[in-house]
Amino acid sequence: MTRLRSAALVLALSAALAGCQTVAEAPAAAPAPQPVASEPAVPAHDNLNATAWVQSSVEARMAHRQAWRSAERLLDAAIADASWDALSPTDRIAPVAGLPPAVIVDVDETVLDNSPYQVRLIREDGRFEDATWNAWVDEARATAVAGAPEFAQAAAKRGITMIYLTNREHAKSAVTRRNLEAVGFPPAAESQFLGLGVETPGCVPKGSDKGCRRQFVAQRYRVLMQFGDQLGDFVSVSDNALEARATQLQGFDAWVGQRWFMLANPSYGSWESALYGNDRSLSRDAQRAAKRAALRD
Predict the structure, then answer these.
(1) Is residue 174 predicted with pLDDT exceeding 50?
(2) What are the chain's domains?
(3) N or C: which end of the chain has fewer CB within 10 A?
(4) How many CA atoms lie within 13 A of 26 on its CB side?
(5) What is the pLDDT of residue 24?
(6) Which pLDDT band holds residue 43 (cuts at 50, 70, 90)?
């Protein structure tokens, strides 16, 4: 009996130990997978890259300073040459002889940087509207385009009048001139601001075209240079189709970088609407499709 009990006990202990070893060696269960939080979708906007370039890149500041500094170096030669004039034959309606010197500058994206307004449109997924634009103008918070205030000061020292020929409403003259002075431009008289809607005796303007206002200046000044960010800042654009725009520049190529200075504006302009037939009633998708169709490889 004793041996049988001993054998049974040994078998029981062996079984118990084997069971413990089996439990100890069993692989641990893999942790349950945790859900991965997805990044929030970032709304797309056609103007994102352009606005980021204007606001953040050293390349934008270099390009702008390059234009203004190049023009400043030509001022003395322009003053000395009595035949030097930057108005097209269509706009030069009065002889230049005896007229005091002036330069014509556009305002928005030429001497003032309104990229914060573009930022608002991007963040709100909005489009340009007169009400929001005029509200921004009234804030008078636009910064100076790099190099522009220094050029304006150099021109003023030489007795050259700066004419601000802009498609801001003429009623925005005071607030715009205050904004300009705040960022380093010499004080400007009311007569130096020719906004949209200003009366030009003897000439009936067509929409926002600047031709009548350039002719108004032509009767009072010899225009040494013109500055802008769109073709219409230099010459009236009768047909805003791509090929017609290119044709209108012919004959003035020698003036580019000498009498005409273009400031890069990749955010907006008549160049954009030309890509979709100037039909601003088109949906964003339709406009985007037309732009893609205009690309070349």
Answers:
(1) yes
(2) 48-268 (3.40.50.1000)
(3) C
(4) 9
(5) 46
(6) confident
Write out the two tokens for 264. 């890069």
Are 114 and 235 within 8 A, CB to CB?
A: no
Beta bridge partners of 256: 260
User: 216-251 b/e with 16+ CB inside 10 Å = b?
Assistant: bbbeebbbbbbbbbbbbbbbbbeebeeeebeebeee
**How far apart, in whole angstroms, are the C-alpha atoms of residue 296 and residue 131?**
36
* Maximum C-alpha span of the chain: 141
Closest residue by Cα to residue 103 from 227, 280, 272, 255 = 227
The pLDDT tens digits of the residues spanning 66-94 come to 999 999 999 999 999 999 999 999 999 99
| Global confidence as pTM | 0.86
Q: What are phi and psi of 224, to 5 degrees?
A: -75, -40
Q: What is the distance between the alpha carbons of residues 226 and 183, in angstroms, rounded to a whole number?
A: 21
Nearest to 93 by CA among 210, 194, 220: 220
- SS3 (DSSP) at 33: coil
β pairing state of 143-144 and 112-113: antiparallel
pLDDT at 187 over 80: yes
Q: Which two tokens stand for residue 9?
A: 């006990």
Separation of alpha carbons 97 and 82, rounded Å? 7
